[in-house]
Amino acid sequence: MGARCFYFSFCGWSSLKSNDTHPSDLENGGGDSDKLKLPAFREYKLDQLKAATGGFSVDNIVSEHGEKAPNVVYKGKLEDDDRLIAVKRFNKSAWPDTRQFLDEAKAVGQLRSLRLANLLGCCCEGNERLLVAEFMPHETLSKHLFHWETQPLKWAMRLRVALYLAQALDYCSTKGRSLYHDLNAYRVLFDQDCNPRLSCFGLMKNSRDGKSYSTNLAFTPPEYMRTGRVIAESVIYSFGTILLDLLSGKHIPPSHALDLIKGKNFQMLTDSCLEGHFTNDDGTELVRIASRCLQYEPRERPNAKSVVAALAPLQKQTDISSLVLMGINDEATQISNLSPLGDACSRLDLTAIHEILEKIGYSGDEGVTDELSFQMWTSQLQDTLNGKKRGDNAFRAKDFNTAIESYTSFIESGTMVSPTMYVRRCLCYMMNNKGQEALGDAMQAQVISPDWSIALYLQAAALFSLGMDNDARETLKDAVSLDPEMRGN
Fold first, then answer.
1. DSSP structure class, residue 41
2. DSSP label of 434
3. Residues belonging to the active site
4. Is pTM beyond 0.85 here?
5. In what order do the strands lie in the sheet with 116-117?
6. Whether 446 contacts 459, CB under 8 Å
7. Which candidate, 156, 230, 145, 126, places its Cα nearest to that of 188?
8. Rounded to a whole number, what is the distance in angstroms from the first to the last CA of the chain?
9. Which of 385, 408, 327, 305 is nearest to 144 (CA)?
10. Per residue in 253-269, pLDDT tens?
11. 137-158: per-residue pLDDT in tens?
């Protein structure tokens, strides 16, 4: 199987498993921080974040606009934590005031909600300014709404996005963070369970004078055009534009949308993919809420709490998980009776994978290395085997950089082929956030031993680490079909 090229967007992996959406979650606004189990906000060292992102490698950029983004977001993994993170690196001219940056970051870092991609920490060294947040793996609302490939976003899911986003804004407002900069479909992310979250990054303005608005001017609040600044009511206006996005499946300028609404030309506003999927009453009510949010005068717009109250009764299929509504059935968990290794790979639990590989040793090399006994007398081979031993000792001690060096030296010597060594180096690469290299090793192990399920399990893990979830699930199924432990189950 060849790996397809995959384009990341900033979305991030949730560090929690919030379980599937439950009707009570629709009501309580996701503010129950007890479910989050997140670490306290902390300050990171620049070296830590460099290591986590592979030296701010281009391969780890997850910003939707790639390197062209004014402030680039990277996917990363900390050495002392299995948690995947999103690291936002500001350009050099942003945040000249160190104290202001730290104070703002610490204030946002106190927020904890199931409706936010929460801020975990920051870094402020020299002229570097970085933020660290939860990583969301299922991309952005922009991707699912405007650039979908397999199916359009369902009506019930659009309503859920609207409610969860309103709840996020209401939560932030109650915590004294009512300003949100550049609220748009790129700022709405989907977590591990495909539940929508609001990116925490928009809660921090990133310029000296607070004038931060990068969206197309046709979509900006009227008062921004007059004063160059956003106020709390501006956020509700931007929320109204997202409601239009959800209704239309297109990015329609609010002035044009309001003209259509005044002319009662709702059909021109409605996404043709939704035809027959909702009632006229529901559509009319969503248009009414959007038009209230888009009022020209800020004082005439509703606050977030009243928007939540208006959206809650519209919710459909509240007993169905977001994964199902998004058409991303969690097939990894649906494969029955996964082996311990299969389960660890499906969850990308690298620590558990390491323990299992240690336990099984080199049993996968049986039949591949028999010729060694006839060559043991050569000093060159003895040196090579000593290198293998150093690699295994480093692997056992979780010194993954040394293990990579030793295994690479052994493999390049060409003395023998070892699928186990490729699998071990694959895990070491994943531990160092080098998903492409890991995938290459897992595939090489499969070439050597086509029927070895462990090679496919590790290939699935590498694909998950790269965000290629569909390919990963298919590979996981192939691994299960070859796994002697699973035959007959």
1. P
2. -
3. 182
4. no
5. 116-117, 196-199, 188-190
6. yes
7. 145
8. 25
9. 327
10. 888 888 888 877 777 78
11. 888 999 999 988 778 999 999 9
